[in-house]
Amino acid sequence: MRRAWFAFVGAAAVAATLLLVPFRYALVPSAARCTNEKPAFPHPAYDSWGESHSSSDGQQHATAATGAERPSDANGAVPIDDGVLALGRSAFYAETFGNEMFLTDVLGIIDGPLGLVQFAEALLRLHGRATTNLRVPIAYDQVVGGRAFKRGELVDTGLDVPRGGLVPLGMAIRRRAGKVRIGITCAACHSTVDERTGLVVHGAPNGDLEAGLLLALATNSAAYFPHVAVGPLADYASERSASVRDSHGRLARLPDPERFEHTVDAMLLEWPPGSFDSMVDLVAAPTQLPDSFTFEDYPFNYSGAFMAGPFHGLSVQSNNVHALNADSFTHADASEALFGVDKEVYLATLLQQAAATHFRFDPKTQRKPSDFFSLVDPTPGAPAMNEVVPLPTYPKASLIAPDGLWSSSPGMLVWQQVNAMSAWQNTLVPPRPPAAPSAALLERGRAVFARAGCDRCHAGPGFNNHRIIPVEELGTEPARAHALHDTEKIFSAPVAYAFDQRVPLPAPARQIAVPTDKLDDAQVELAFAHGSSRGGYKVAGLLGLNWSAPYLHDGGVAVGPDPATQAGVAKTLLVHVMPDPAQSLRALLDRELRARVVAENDAVTRLRDMHVRGVGHEFWVDANAGFPAEDQRALIHYLLYLRGP
Fold first, then answer.
1. Whole-model pTM over 0.85
2. Domain boundaries in the chain?
3. Quick check: 309 and 50 in contact, CB under 8 A?
4. For 596-634, what is each residue's pLDDT tens digit?
């Protein structure tokens, strides 16, 4: 009791300090606190629209594969040096592009039963120890999405805190304009803590992050509704609903705030740990968080849609995380095309229950929601709350931005931060598993890998042939393959701003066309599910498999240390048992174990609703395929120790 009292007093003191002292802080771990700090891949001197060139290429101005000279730094060449890599590392851990305003003032991420005091108390209880799952006490009794939370109950957040850490990885705290706000950086999802050592593992996914739960416990989760399956907004109207004039002057009723919030909360609570729904297709299909071991793993995104631009599309992926996924206002101007929701109705829905009264839209004022938003927008001139630049084609989608926006902070060159993050991620090498490898098993596993035909797709330095496979051929859960289909209505050729243009952009800002002549049109259709395509999934690279269980894009192939009792997501992640990499890989290769995994997943309504099954990719290496158990074991050993050239 006494310890709990001191913890509470300490937490209150920390919270009071946060309220009084201006500051901005995110944990950027020192090299000594990381397991894989030293890059093992030689970085090129520059990247030119995905083509890597050495310093000798640059000195001689050797012709690129297109036959043209190396572009200038302004027109597509990204020099890669220690300064760029340092910026990329820092931005990966600390840069929010201002998303703390949306998350705190609109979504209400710390205004619900998990507030600053509760996070401070949880951190103080660690006494400097590391954790891969920060357990935070509930501040007061609350029913959220039909689930009852009790005061004092410890909630599993999956947030990682390294040894001696003051805040979780990927959580940025900022006091501005008299208020403390919480933002999120790349590291919340794409770095983790090694439970054995308490050290940070750059690029390893946070496999038990409870993103859905943290969003559901916000006070205005409804502002995140594009990422869940809600159906027509008109279905949520009631006699308590307010009305607004839409873009055509027609009177439109808004969703009932209480009913709509309950629906969104309930769906967010169904997301399995370690997953996130990054698409805005109004389909409930969270995807397993990917790793950031990106070397030779292009194209990016599970469907391979990010394939154009610098670093083979990696910059496009980094941009998308901070625009499309971290600020619902980025889709406002395309809401009618994407969701069938008028822009004014869309904005009013996001803002009618905003956490901060300054951002709360009151329909009784008769003001247009778009006029109200322009008055309170913290980034005037940008069509969203985050620090984004509208591309010349905005609000149309393109190969370099599904929402037509580019993340960049004032004072920086327009591509500088996302390109730096891409350059740094491409240097990351996954740590080896803790046990020493067996040379004999590695050699046998390499032979089995070839004999089983795995290298037909998983070839080259990243064990990835850079292709997208039609969903019908791969046989995996199809819901996510179709997620970008509606962007075809607003798709355009990719046009960007020259790399030497600084934010805020000059008028007029110099534009450049992003080259796409090397891209395969059929692959583009597969990636976006455009035309008659049902979509597809990229061939995944195999580096770092020891850190990325469970497997497949839906994270459905999950098995714990005891396969007899821990097969399937419900028997692992849903009960806070981390999937075992070796056993989960066995389920990927062994049809009998996979059948059990799929049956266990299919038996759980929550997983069926979220399209988490673990089906497909039926390339068996088991007894029925002529491989004895020792071959299977050797192949798994080989796969777990792959680290690249």
1. yes
2. 2-29+93-213, 439-466+539-640
3. yes
4. 999 999 999 999 999 999 999 999 999 999 999 999 999
